[in-house]
Amino acid sequence: MKQKLYARGTMFAILGGALWAVAGLCGQYIFEEKHLDASWYVAVRLMMAGVILLFFSWVKFRRDIFSIWKDKKDAAGLLVYGIMALMGVQLTHFLAVQYCNAATATVIMYLSPAFVLAWLCLVSRRAPGKIEIFAVALAVAGVFLLVTHGDVTSLSITGIALFWSVASAILMAFYSVQPKKLIDKWGSLLTNAWGMTLGGGALCIYNPPWQTGGGRVDVITIAIMVMVVLFGTVAAFWLFLEGMRIIGSQKASVYACAEPLFTAVFGVICLGIDMTATDWIGAFLIVVTVVILALEPGKKKESPQQTSLKPAIAEPVKMSGKNKKAFPGKEGERKRMDPVKI
User: Fold this and answer.
1) Is residue 25 part of a domain?
2) Strand 316-318 to 333-335 pairing
3) CA-based, 20 to 30 A from 118: which of 108, 160, 230, 329?
4) Does the reported pTM lie above 0.70?
């Protein structure tokens, strides 16, 4: 029975990563075939998914979903998370997809654990361990192979594509550590629901969805966006949460690292993305880096954050009386953060 449950949790975590990969590839298709840009795609995706998750939060937990706004510090943190962290990482990632391809952009974004490690070493005033140094060296080697194909005299992707890819990795690191207090207090679902709504709303103001800049919003575009929102965002989020609930945050985060590999394989098959042997080696090195840093002993004692790229959840901890009343849950439990991707 336990083996079947573990297998189901593993399947959920991997499937969540696969659906996130599909969302990235759908973005590339929309950029190339429908001539819509990254800001339009991210605005529609985040806004629609945020509203749906807010509704789920209200229905499932019967919560007052607006209580989070009553504390000024929480409100300010939520604004930073939604607009700077969540929307920032999504926009930079899909700009990278727009300027190169989903496979390369996703793999480079998975450099974020190295940036998280650098930040944790800085704030804790410690030097990285030998295993951590080895993992970062693998990541650097992987990116080098991806962007140069081993030839130091040329780049295989444009400079602007490399810029947005690295920017997405840095913002993903920020996204992974910034909302800890919010998620400790309010939980992953509500925090991410508001974060998506805020980020999508801000982008909708900047780039209204009805202004397509010459792109085509037809039946196919609408069908793809519905699939991206329902399956590539909401369902992927739920599957990862369920997988982590069953098998634990660390193992779920490692299994979700299959996302860049799914992106590469699906991209080659469905969109004809050109992946050379050097690209595959580079992608493999970066994924190995993420796995090493996720499993590195003692890491969890230093910080409750994981180096996964997923939106946030975690293991139950006791609520304070103040928050327990506002957000009743099973036996008064709340969740501690584990970053997850959307």
Assistant:
1) yes
2) antiparallel
3) 160
4) yes
What is the torsional sign of CA 38, 41, 44, 48?
negative
Give me the phi and psi of 318, to 5 degrees please. Answer: -70, 140
* Count: domains in the chain: 1
Q: Answer whether 237's CB lies under 8 Å from 342's CB.
A: yes
248: in domain: yes
Mind listing the pLDDT tens digit for each residue in 122-142?
888 888 888 888 888 888 888
d(CA 162, CA 98): 11
342, part of any domain: no
Angle between helices 38-61 and 219-229 (to 10 degrees): 50
In a 13 Å sphere around the CA of 230, the CA atoms on its Cβ side amount to 6
∠331-337-341 over CA atoms, to 5°? 125
pLDDT band at 314 (very low <50, low <70, confident <90, very high): very low
Count other Cβ atoms within 10 Å, centred on residue 148. Answer: 16
Is residue 301 a part of any domain in this protein?
yes
Q: Give me the half-sphere count of Cα atoms (radius 13 Å) on the Cβ side of residue 184.
A: 10
